[in-house]
Write a structure and sequence with these properties.
mainly alpha, Arc Repressor Mutant, subunit A, 9 helices, 3 strands, elongated
């Protein structure tokens, strides 16, 4: 009838499209996280090729989310691409290692200074607990676990500055270092790193914050020397 308001039909197709879009994003994120986790845990070792079809069959998905995941990891620098050859897990070299450790040192020292200047109360109990687990991992020669716990110790210390952007950047640096290490051949010297953690914690407890900064700097540079000895 003339003048009658036209009623639009329910937008079922739009809702369905939105649902499918959400499912696609979820699948893409899941596959991205799975591939990244395997790289970080060295199940996909440095230098190994990442084949689209093999990965699609491994995770029981189409090649599309695999392609999306690899492209994202490539953009983030976790994998490299050789024309006509495909994608490969990135390997660390001396120059990149030095840059990562220099940035790590700068961030950790800045985070500690901010924590002191802002009067943050350091959670020594939590850091001691992490370091205790680290010592057990060292004794058991659990390479991946001890590297993760070492990261957790340093992130826990830096977290007192309460700067989420700094922490995200620091976690990214640790991730880049860890995912490129040949875990099974990483030098079995971290008992010294455990002792250095103890020294840092004691200096914090004693309020010797200048000493803490010096110990932290030496500790990080020693870690770089250990890594350098492995990648050369």
């Amino acid at each position: 009838m003339k003048g009658q308001t036209k009623v639009s039909p329910p937008k079922a197709s739009a809702a369905k499209a939105a649902s499918e879009s959400g499912e696609t994003v979820s699948v893409n994120s899941r596959i991205y996280n799975l591939v990244k986790e395997r790289i970080c845990s060295n199940r996909f070792s440095a230098g190994s090729k990442l084949n689209h079809q093999v990965l699609a069959e491994m995770f029981n998905v189409s090649r599309t989310p695999i392609r999306e995941a690899l492209e994202r990891l490539y953009q983030e620098g976790f994998i490299i691409h050789h024309p006509n050859r495909g994608f490969f897990v990135a390997q660390i070299d001396e120059d990149e290692a030095r840059q990562l450790f220099e940035l790590r040192e700068g961030l950790e020292l800045h985070a500690f200074r901010m924590s002191v200047e802002r009067g943050r109360k350091f959670d020594l109990r939590r850091m001691k607990a992490i370091n205790k687990d680290y010592r057990l991992a060292v004794q058991g020669s659990h390479s991946q676990q001890r590297m993760s716990l070492d990261r957790d110790f340093h992130v826990a210390l830096a977290a007192h500055c309460q700067n989420s952007f700094l922490l995200k950047a620091l976690e990214g640096i640790f991730e880049r270092i860890m995912l490129k290490l040949r875990v099974e051949s990483y030098p079995t010297l971290p008992s010294k790193a455990y002792d250095e953690h103890v020294e840092i914690l004691q200096a914090i407890a004693d309020g010797q914050f200048t000493t803490v900064s010096s110990l932290l700097s030496v500790h990080i540079r020693t870690g770089f020397d250990r890594l350098l000895g492995q990648i050369k």
